[in-house]
Amino acid sequence: MTGLAILIPAALALGLLGLGAFFWALRNGQFDDPDGSAARILIDEEDI
Amino acid sequence: MSAQPRPDVAPLRTVLAVPGMHCAGCMSKVERGLSTLPGVSGARVNLSARTVTVAHGDRVEERDLVDALAVLGFEAQPRRDELAPNLSAVKPLLAPFAVAGFAAMNVMLLSVSIWSGADGATRSLFHWISAAIAIPAVAYAGRPFFASAWRVLRHGRTNMDVPISIGVLIATGLSFYETAVGGEHAWFDGVLMLLTFLLAGRVLDAMMRDKARAGVDALIRQAAQGATVVAADGTLAWRKADELAAGMVMRVAAGERLAADGEIVAGQSRFDQSLLTGESAPIALHRGDAALAGTLNLDAPVDVRVSHAGQDTTLAEIARLMEASTQSRSRYVRIADRASRLYAPAVHTLAAVSVIGWLIAGASLYEALVIGVAVLIITCPCALGLAVPVAQVVASGALMRAGLMVKDGSALERLATIDRALLDKTGTLTLGRLTPDPAALDAVPPTEAGIALALASHSRHPLSRALAGALAARGVRAASLWGVEERPGEGVFAHHDDGAVALRRPEQATGTAVVLDIDGAPARLIVCSDRLRPDAAEALAGLRALGVECSILSGDNIAAVAEVARETGLTAQASATPADKQAAIARLRASGHHVLMVGDGLNDGPALAAADASIAPGTASDVGLQASDLVFVQDSLIALPRAVRASRATMRIVRQNFALAILYNIFAVPLAIAGLVTPLIAALAMSISSLIVVGNSLRLARIAR
């Protein structure tokens, strides 16, 4: 049972980490242009 | 990858709509092409919105950017509302969805251990942790539902969000009480799962609307965003449409649209008024005649003294008519809300009856309340909340891939009921643009065609551009010319080898045509006319097969309408003003018909807004695009029967989903009333019914084929 004291906070922390990462992505504008991001990987980056 | 804009280098930003971009190649072409311009420090494409944001210095004009894109082969328009924030329906829902999902997963993890037999202090601890996660999560993620429920309750109405909110709040409250007294069952997992599923439905619904709206926004052109104004001392200056005022003199070149109403003070030309009146034949206007905003100058440059600008033009009159007619549409109640009008009272009565029944049977108040909550949770419209949005999202996605954009979720519901269709002529049944007679082009030998293409490509006149487009599409190569000269109102004159060649207007202007004059060869008359859209006959037959009777409702003159009516075999009403069109629709609706309006012009705006459902082609005017429910981007009219068929299939699936949800309730509610439902059973029942509804809706993915 003492394992729970570590496991539950660990599970919650990992979950919160994911949630935090999602919010960061949302604020950072990563969901502004889903179609463009999908297409952008196909552009060859020459020296611009 | 990290092409972040650098505001310190480039103080100015311009947003241009570029509807023609659709792949990675287009993106890199546009971004690199614009970045190499002098004064431009960066360009970033947003493919979802079909826009490009250009960061540039103050010496770069909007028109330079548009011209640069035209050289790259992309048509572009500046966005008037570039500074307004892009209102997305998805964004405010993403955060609640993420929170609900996170909380649901963690609480479910704890619940599974409770269901596997944890008890005593462990169960109590788990319940407390669940409560600590769930209560803030419900308060945050439930806000979209609570706000919407409160909005309608204040006006004494109800919608789907009312039973959802009541169920969620009561279940959360009771679970907290259970936790506090160390009870056996807490329902936090069920509540959060419910919110997650429902938010998933809402997010999908919003995504679909955002996508369609972005597509339509990109199509919206600024027909005439300004005019070249001649000052008293003869200098010319470009003024934006909202800077024009009565008394100014605009110089309108051939091929330009008028930005304001006015009176011609110098020159004479022919004008295409089709966008405004539906009249397809150009009308000749001379000095002293009135010309209307939105009309296209065809032949020669003219000077026009502005009489009405901005909100005083004929356009504003049409806008007022539209405002009046949109009210009938807003009274439409969506099917999900109609269902909840029956559903919510039934469910709430059932829960109350169970509580009273158990009290009479001798249970304690606490036991009776737990059973009441179980009934509320098990009947909470999880599947119902998904039934409509998921079906509509899948159908809209399928339609979008087929070139049909659904602007509004309720559009498919309204479209499914129609039994009568009214079609505008110019631009709707026909392509709305002049195309040279194919037979006349066939008769032109290749060398002469090459000369014609070279001549036509030197002019921006609408007829020249139509001719150049048609010849280029036939694979004609332009011949080399020298001494090219365009004389306004006359044509393009040049020399090829040693002979004089010309593309000019015919001596007597009968209809719309150009004459190709080549030294040593007979003059050729190439007639240009507006043609029926491809597949028109097939599309109309398709609509008839669906039980939709079609007729033409046009603002054009009787002769022109009669010709199209003969070709298509439809009855027709000609010379209809915008108010006439609106009245025709009101008459049909009063006699019990559900009317579909298909139109494109400004003059169709009021009719599009008044009809039960409306469709516009992608080439329609801004007003047409904004007033319509669906927009089809291809030339073919086959989109019409396809849209009607898809909408009816969608409603069939929605009704099946409702039936499935009711079937589920028939099994689950007696169990809940009998007091046999535990949180475990509730969680299972909810997930299974939701999955079934989603699975059934996915069958719509192939609907638009």
TrEMBL record, chain A:
It comes from the Bacteria. Keywords: Membrane, Transmembrane, Transmembrane helix. The keyword Membrane applies. It holds the Pfam family FixS. The chain crosses the membrane at residues 6-26. NCBIfam families: ccoS (TIGR00847). This is Cytochrome oxidase maturation protein Cbb3. It comes from Sphingopyxis granuli. The lineage of its organism: Bacteria, Pseudomonadati, Pseudomonadota, Alphaproteobacteria, Sphingomonadales. The gene is ccoS.
